[in-house]
Design a protein that fits this description.
Low-confidence stretches: none
Mean pLDDT: 85
Radius of gyration: 15 Å
Order of helices and strands: EEHHEEEE
Shape: globular
Number of helices: 2
Helix content: 10-25%
Strand content: 25-35%
Number of strands: 6
């Protein structure tokens, strides 16, 4: 399992994590033959000053546009436009 917690100091980091992900998302299919796609790709990630919002093809940047520097990683699209990029492109970084 991968556990993501909000930034914190001291004992506050030991509290309940914000999100829990399976290390290998293929394991979700062993638990449920039709897992929820939203849970499989869910995530708002902050990396080196860039906020990445993952979602489906209808996902917009409304939730993260206040950050100024953001990308929407959308599933089920082949090409991107502006701040919306295909989610599959991130697999090249793995």
């Amino acid at each position: 399992m991968n556990i993501l917690s909000a930034e914190g100091k001291g004992i506050s980091r030991l509290q309940k994590p914000d999100k829990i992900f399976l290390e290998n998302t293929n394991l979700a299919y062993a638990i449920d033959p039709n897992p929820d796609k939203g849970n499989m790709r869910d995530g708002d990630f902050f990396i080196s000053g860039l906020t990445i919002e993952a979602g489906g093809k209808s996902k917009t940047g409304k939730q993260v546009q206040h950050t100024g520097n953001y990308l929407v990683a959308a599933d089920d699209i082949e090409t991107g436009l502006g701040t919306k990029v295909p989610l599959w492109l991130f697999s090249f970084l793995y």
